[in-house]
Request: fold
Amino acid sequence: MATHDANLPLGRGMKAPAATRTRHLRKWGLPVETLVLGLTLLLWVVMALTTSTFLTTNNVVNILRQVSIDSIIAFGVLFPILIRGIDLSVGSVVALSGVVCATLLTAGVPIPLAIALTLVLGVAIGSLNAFSVYRLGIPAFIITLAGLQAFRGGAFLVSDGTSVFGLPKALSAFARAEWLGIPSLFWSMLVIGVVLHFILSRTRTGRYMIAMGSNHESARRAGINIKRIVFFAYIVSSVTACIAGMLLMARMSIGSPTAGVAYELNAIAAAVVGGASLFGGRGSVLGTFIGALLFATIANAANLLGIDSFWQMVATGVLIAAVVYVDNLHKCRQSGVK
Amino acid sequence: MSLLEVRDLKKRFGAVEVLCGVDLTLDAGEVLAVVGDNGAGKSTLIKHISGVYRRDSGDIALGGKAVAFDSPKEARRAGIETVYQDLALADELSVGANIFLGREPVRRWLGLLPVIDRGRILQETQRLIDSIESHIPDGASTVAGLSGGQRQAVAIARALYWDAKVVILDEPTAALAVMERENVIKLSRMLAAKGVGVIYIGHNLVEILEVADRIAVMYRGRIVHVARSEETTQEELIKYMTGYSERRESAA
Ligand SMILES: Nc1ncnc2c1ncn2[C@@H]1O[C@H](COP(=O)(O)OP(=O)(O)OP(=O)(O)O)[C@@H](O)[C@H]1O
Ligand SMILES: [Mg+2]
Reply:
């Protein structure tokens, strides 16, 4: 037990005498996000200078569309991560919500009602996850892994194993629309991001999530309603996955049961690269966006340069390991422990 | 009338009787130390006072009124603050956020949405830090980078701010350097000077004799001796802590 704790790659629990030094470091902002942002910008500059196809309106809009959906899912996943949980089911929820919404629409249900019903599904899935974690005591990793399987299966069942066609034209028009030269999907992501950032940084609920993730016992003793926080975190995760699922459906003009495969891993990677700790208590919406932007940029660049997508996967993996390593180095130095 | 009165408190965990009839009184403005060997039942006793455990039998009265807390939250609301052995601060939150955790002042953003009043928290925290002179860098820095003594100061400041009637410190100096111990002793005296009743659990008798007005010795689930600190000595306390006096009595 003690050895396990000592092996946590975090500064938590290590008492640091170097309080003033820490303060100076903090003044310079959170280093991981800055590093990742720098890396992303560097990639943009290099790509802009070396290719003629990267910095074109078309391609930039493309990146923005891609990063929008990735970010929305990643924002959601950040919430369970903050309370030291995890949600592996979001990729499958993306598919399930897409085919459910598409099926409702092709059955003649009006658009607003179809969207509302799909969101209710998100609330139900989130509640189920939270109930399993909080009440039944099933580890989040296990229950959402079960969800990853089950909801994917559900998506195939609902759609009879094929894609659902024949969506209202208004939806694909929305997904293609631009306002002020910025794609509507990106606007959607901005709105969701701002709302979630606001909750996280300004409200009691947000603060209690961080308290719970960084010290469960202190949160409990402070009289925080843990149950409420757990439900909130998992519901946010599922509902944002449902929103992303519907946006993806609108963008592709089909409800596909194979949509969103492995999206949960991309989302978690974006949050972690953006400064979130899988041990809870640390992470931000802005950092998560930056993480998602880096991955979307890498994918786009690799595509333009004709780099094998297998290499792209390897590069992404190496990057995750490197960023988390650098982050740990920093934190260990900060808490005076080698 | 005493501020806090515990009478004939009993508790068993399974087959083990951990508290077998504890009597204890605490006055406002005093530091009462509770000493005793490991496993004597000190932490268990204070967890009954702070609402963590429920007693099997006995009475607890606060300000002359019988109380039975169902949760630490209720005890806190009644004015009993506990600084636990393990401190329980949220590392990723700032000093101010920790002091106000669970009781954040809220204002309406744009007259509508309830948001945490961060300005007020920061301001009040800064005032609090200045008043306890504990070298905490500032209210906005996170707790993660603080030393053990600074953490202890934050936890005590939290009790100070919320106008506690009773503050319980469970081995507050266990993990501290010498200089930091002095600071905790100073803070405890400061609390008592403000009229708070302080229960101070510790093992270091030199320190106990310095900080406490009265000392209660616990032995195997009972308070076997209470003395004013100026009227007792380390030798006498150790005698009671090791059960020497009990053995003598039973032999007689
Ligand atoms: N939840 C519990 N269940 C069963 N036994 C317990 C529990 N809590 C405490 N005990 C037992 O009760 C006895 C008293 O424990 P307690 O923690 O109160 O001692 P203490 O005086 O605080 O000791 P220390 O100086 O080591 O902190 C011990 O024998 C302990 O094993
Ligand atoms: Mg103890």
